[in-house]
Amino acid sequence: MRSMERTLESGRDCSKRSGFTPAPSCPYTALMITGSCHCGAVTWRYPKRPDKLTSCNCSYCRRAGGLWAYAHPGDIDVAYAKGSVIRYIQGDRTLAYVSCANCGCTTHWENLDADADRMAVNFAMADPSEVEGIRIRHFDGADSWTFLD
Predict the structure, then answer these.
(1) What is the side-by-side strand order in the sheet with 119-122?
(2) Three-state SS for 130?
(3) DSSP 3-state of 129
(4) Is 29 exposed, middle or buried (0-12, 13-18, 19+ CB in 10 A)?
């Protein structure tokens, strides 16, 4: 993940260095999907339309209403001002769920292992038209740790 507690900086060479507005010549422009918390203080950009989303029924995700899309942290841009998020770490302490300190929406999770190659953004924060038609897999994070479909 690129921009924790600072102004967004794009990970793509063809993108502008401020905000979510890619340069017009950027080949990724049509593929990027953006999302934000309800008040707009936390925003994210995902590099493409995912093949699937994951709905998990673990004790946290079922409460947060997460529709998770995963990617390498270097491929997802997240932006928010210093002090505008809260992190919740529970259980085996491998993930930090990140929520807006103002409106409370859970926008993404961060892997606490510095060598980890995966994080997720919550597509429930994207425009419904961006989510429409994406397959949703149901993961049993409460019990068997397997997909139910």
Answers:
(1) 85-88, 95-100, 106-111, 119-122, 68-71, 52-56, 135-139
(2) helix
(3) helix
(4) middle
Question: What pLDDT, on a 0 to 100 scale, did the predictor assign at position 16?
Answer: 33
**DSSP string for 40-65:** SSSEEEESS--SEEEEE-STTHHHHT
Q: What is the pLDDT of residue 29?
A: 52
Residue spans of alpha helices (H) in the chain: 61-64, 128-131
Do the beta carbons of residue 12 and residue 23 sit within 8 Å?
Answer: no
Those residues of the chain that have pLDDT short of 70 are 1-30
Copy the structure tokens of residue 10. Answer: 């794009």
Contact assessment for residue 119 and residue 44, using Cβ atoms and an 8 Å cutoff: no
Q: How far apart are CA 109 and CA 122, in angstroms?
A: 8
In 76-128, the DSSP E strands lie at 77-79, 85-88, 95-100, 106-111, 119-122
- Determine the Cα–Cα distance for residues 108 and 73; give it in Å rounded to an integer: 11
Q: CA nearest 98: which of 48, 141, 36? A: 36
* Overall pTM surpassing 0.85 (yes/no): no
